[in-house]
Amino acid sequence: MELEEKIDQYFSLQKEIHEAFGYQEDYRVIPMDDARDVKWWFLTDEKSGKLYYGYTELTEEIALEGNEFYSSEIYTQRHLPKWVYRTNQYTLVCNDTHADLNVFLTIFPNDKELKDEKLKASVTENWGF
After folding, report:
1. Structural domain tally of the chain?
2. Residue 86: which H helix or E strand, with range?
3. 56: Cα within 13 Å, side-chain hemisphere
4. For residue 20, which of 3, 93, 105, 107 sits 20 to 30 Å off, Cα-Cα?
5. Is 41 inside any structural domain?
C-alpha cells in the first residue's frame, strides 16, 4: 500500500470511529488513545467528574496505596456538546491528563467499567483530587 492510500485510510477510519461514538470534532483536534486493555475504569460523573483506570486488577490494597492506577479529569471544553460517548461495547472519554497539556479521546471497554461501589469509594476517598 502506498503512502497516499495509507493517509486516506487513516483519515477515513478516524472519521468512521468518531461517527460510531457520535463524536464531532469542533475547534480542537484531540488524538485518540486506546485503553481497551485496561483491567478496570470508572467515572465519578460524566459531566465534570474524575476518571480512574488501571492495568492491574484493583484490590483494596491497591486502592489504599494508589500507585498502580491513573487518575485524570474529564476534559470539559465548551466547544463539545458532551464529554463522554457511550456505545454498546465501548466508551469514549475526553480525558485531560493534566500532564504536558495532553488531552485524549480515550476508548475504554464497557465490560471493564468498575461496578464495585466499595472499591470505587476506596479509590476516590484516598486519591480523589
Report:
1. 1
2. strand 84-86
3. 10
4. 3
5. yes
Q: Is the residue at 121 inside a domain?
A: yes
Q: Which helix (H) or strand (E) holds 53?
A: strand 50-54
| Closest among 68, 49, 72 to 60, alpha carbons compared | 68
* Within a domain: 15: no
How does pLDDT run across 47-83, given as a tens digit for each residue?
888 999 999 999 999 888 888 899 999 999 888 899 9
The dihedral formed by the CA atoms of 105, 108, 110 and 113, expressed in degrees to the nearest 10: -110
pTM reported for the whole predicted model: 0.92
Q: What residue spans of the chain are helical by DSSP H? A: 3-21, 60-65, 117-127
Instruction: Look at residues 36, 54, 23 and name the one whose alpha carbon lies nearest to residue 127.
Output: 54
Residue 84 lies in a domain: yes
Domain holding 49, by residue range, is 30-127
